[in-house]
Every structure is written in C-alpha cells, then in structure tokens.
C-alpha cells in the first residue's frame, strides 16, 4: 500500500468534493427555503458560466468586473424564475414541481446553446496549471482556489443566516404557514433563495468552467450535486460541505481500486451507489431534518 | 351565457363503471380507431413511418409510466432503463432463435423482474427521494449497459435486430410495422381503460392518495406498489422491444439514456397524470412540436432572407421542448388531458345540451 499516493488521492478528492459542495449549496439554499428540489441547478450553472464569458469576451469587460456583473444578472434571473414559474405551482404535488424544474433545465440548456453555440470555451481565469507540491503530493491550483471559494461561500452563508433577512429565510424554511402569519413575506423569501442559488451557480460555473471548459457538460454536475445535497441532508449547508468532502474522497479512492477491476469509468457508478445507499439507509441525510409524516 | 359543467357525475353504479362515461367519448374513440386502421391508406408512407409509428409506440410506453406515476403515484425517473432491459432481452432472445412472439414476452417479463427492483426503493421512500433513487438506478443501468459488451453487442455498442416476424409472417413493410405498433398501442389502451373499473385500479388510486391511509383500510400497499411497478415495467419492456424492432432496427444504449427517461415523464405529465387521452396528446406534443417549430424557424428565416447558424438551429428544438413543459405546467398543471376534459364539459353544456332536449 502506497500511503503517499493514497493521501494524494484523498486530498485531491476532498478538494474536488468541495467543488461539488459549491454546486450543492445552491440546491440546498432553495430546498431549505421552499422544499423545492431544484433540478435546474445544472442549467443555471451553465447559464452562469456562459453569462460570465459573454460579458468578458463579447462585451470585453475584464474578468474581475464580469464575474460580479454576471452575479447581478443571475440574481435577477433567479428572482424572475421564481416569480414567473415556481410561484404559480406552489403547493402542487412534488411530481409537477420536479417536472417544472426539469423543463426549466432543458429550456435553459437549449437556449444557452442556441445563443452561444455548443463548442467548448475556456474560462481563462489566469490560475496557473502547474501543480503545487507538498512533499510528494501534487495539488492542482484551481482546485485549491475552488475549494477556497466554496469554504468562503459557506462562511458567508453561515453569517448571512444570522442577519435579519437570513433569520426570515430560516423561519420560512421551518414553517411556511407560521412565518406567513407573523408577517414575513414568504414569496419574497423564496424568491431571494432562488436569486442566491443563481449567484452560487455563477461561482460554480466559473470554477468548473475553468476546470473542464464551458460547455454542456457543466449541467451534468447535477447528479453529483444532488448526491452531495442528499447525503448532507437536503436542508443543511454544513451538511453539503461535509458530504462534498466525503463524496470526493470516496469517489477518488474507491474508483482507483475499482477502475482496474471493471475497466474504467466507475466514478458515475460510485456516485449513483452513494445516492441509492443514502436514500435507502438514511433518507434525511447526515444533518438533514427528519420529518414525520401524518396520515 | 358562459357556464360549464363542474364535471361528469353519476347517479348509479352502472353508469359510473362504464368505460366511456360520455357517449361523445365513445364515438370519438371509435372514429379515431377507424382512422388509425385506415391510416396506411391515407397518410403518405414517410409520415406514417417517421411520425405515426413512434407516436403510437411512445404512447404505449407513456401509458405504462402513467400506470405507475399517475395511478399508483410513484415517481419513476428510470423508465428508459426498464425499456432498455426489455429491448435488449427480447432482441437477444430473437437473435438466439426464439420466435418473436415469445421473445417479446420474454422481454416484458425480464423488464418486470428488473423493474420490480425499483419498487423496493418505493417501499422505503416516496416522493422526491424515490425520484432521486430511480434516477440513480437509471445511471447504474446505463453504466451496466455500456460496460458489458455481452449485452450491448460488442465494441460498437450496437445490436442489430433480426427481422420481425409475428404469427409466421415476416414483417418488412412500413404498413406492417405500423399495424404492429397500432395493435400494441390499442392493447395497452384497452388495458388501461379497463384498469379504472377494476379493484386493482381502485387500490392503486388509494395507494396514490395516501399509502398509510390505504393500509389502514386494508389495502396492502406493499403488494400494490410492486404490482404497479411490475405491470408498468412489462409494458415498458415490450414497448422498448417494439421500438427497436420496428423503428430503430438497431439497439444502442443512447436510445435509453437518462434524457429519454425524462422525456417519457414529460410526456406523461404534460399529458396529464392518470389521463389516457392525455398521454396521446402529451406524446404528440413532446415528440412532434419541437421538430415542427424548427421547420417553421427554417422557413421563416429563409423567407426573411436571414441566415441562422446551424448550431443555433440544432439547439432550438431543445429549447422549445423545455419551454413546452414549463408553459403547459403553468397553464394547466393537470395537463392536456384536463384541458380536453374542460373543453368537452363546456361543449356538453352549451351547444350539445340543446340538441339532447
């Protein structure tokens, strides 16, 4: 057993896992406020990356300006999606809401590709591709930057949930009706959660776009993001971060053992297996709230 | 005066258990059935083969999903994987020399067995979590399919389907393929129409509304959930096999990917959960409209003398497909079947009520 190699796998897995968390935080924000599973987060991430590129390349803004501007645009888009689509289906069975977000996902992907084309583009953040060395362990710089962004967002949201607005969102997450009755604008709160999730999507889009190029494959992060969100508990941001690290490590280490046995490509299988096992054993995840159903 | 019926209500059990609650429905069905029979002589073979045939087979498949999602209320995002099981097992059986009649049944039964595995997830969780589990199972199935050459047919991952032959007749013409699809779709439709009137159908609806409450009433929700999954998987398996045997002629894993699962679910939900005529509408809308819109865009841009990027054109159908799902859900969350019902009820009150008196 080669411990250096194993720890390299584990550390890089954990960093990649934090990037999954970056994606999953968006899912959790929306689920927390409105119990809506947002299957359009993959599409949103893709749109986020393309908007950044459109501002940077087509308009010609520098990246440091393009990214915040894109965040503002996406903030508006998130609010708009909630206002136009989700609000009208509030209180409907989950199957219709699922289908609505799936339809949104398909629509966002199709529209983005129709406007900007499907060829892969690069983000060119300017992070060097040379790996960092710690003793014998390689670490990719962009992954380190991404993990930093994920942790920064985590801390930011932890602080945000202590502000007045954040407390309102927590109240909405806790009980729709009760927060309504004490005068909290539930609609605005849910809209805000969509807007924030769209901003998170910009961050995820930029980092993942730098890693794998800006193209349709960005929306395929959905399965991994969902797995992380479910494993952490769909309504816990801390859970998303920890579950991201767990999934990243498990995926990297196990696939290294499994790949030679099954002839490669076992990552998807591991992610799907983690999702199935989580739901079978502990549906509410590691830190999620366990709801009891009444007949 | 604008007023309409609140719904069709019955005063006795006989009228309540009729297949067609309204005579107009029966007449319309008979009319459509006749058109379906005569279609090969009316519709040009190109349209018959590329629009009518997939429409009918996808409708049969969508009705199967409607059974499990619309009647039994269990979310299923892995339906394409179940169709793949049926398609691959019956084609392997047919290639092995089993007559096609039995090969189709073998495909259906294998699907039933594998599809019932999905039901075990349904016993533990429901709603969103069930959807996610079935989605994950779809990924597992996809992975197994693409990584086992013995199933998917060697390095090219495509499997040639042998010539379809039913009752000793080799079927090679477009008309023949059409009638096979038509026959299967009619069979499934008759089954689904009658399902509502049986104890099984009522039990499934009870499980859908609230499985705990159903259990208290003495409906074994465990048994009915598995039964729903097994039956719908049988329909999925045979539909998948027929789709390959009459339409694709070549089985490949991409034909049964996650996107296809989502597409079938979209057909069912856009059509209306638990609505049979809705499934027909939903499949037609999802399958045909994006192509039609693309054609319109091409003609429009040619007419206006505009040049549209090829890549843009390639992605417009996808955008339209997504927009259709969103728009229909926003207009009428209960789907096209409900819209049809509303229009029918309205007409029954106003012009046609006058004729009855």
Automatic annotation (TrEMBL), chain A:
The chain crosses the membrane at residues 12-31, 62-81, 93-117, 137-161, 226-249. The keyword Transmembrane applies. It is found in: Cell membrane. Pfam families: BPD_transp_2. GO terms for molecular function: transmembrane transporter activity. Keywords: Amino-acid transport, Cell membrane, Membrane, Transmembrane, Transmembrane helix, Transport. It comes from the Bacteria. One of its GO terms (cellular component) is plasma membrane. It is a multi-pass membrane protein. GO terms for biological process: amino acid transport. Belongs to the binding-protein-dependent transport system permease family. LivHM subfamily. This is Amino acid/amide ABC transporter membrane protein 1, HAAT family. It comes from Thalassococcus halodurans.
TrEMBL record, chain B:
Keywords: Cell membrane, Membrane, Transmembrane, Transmembrane helix. InterPro entries: ABC_transp_permease (IPR001851), LivM-like (IPR043428). Its main location: membrane. One of its GO terms (cellular component) is plasma membrane. It is a multi-pass membrane protein. It is found in: Cell membrane. The chain crosses the membrane at residues 28-47, 53-72, 102-121, 128-145, 176-195, 226-250, 256-273, 280-300, 320-340. One of its GO terms (molecular function) is branched-chain amino acid transmembrane transporter activity. It holds the Pfam family BPD_transp_2. PANTHER family: ABC TRANSPORTER PERMEASE PROTEIN, HIGH-AFFINITY BRANCHED-CHAIN AMINO ACID TRANSPORT SYSTEM PERMEASE. This is Branched-chain amino acid ABC transporter permease.
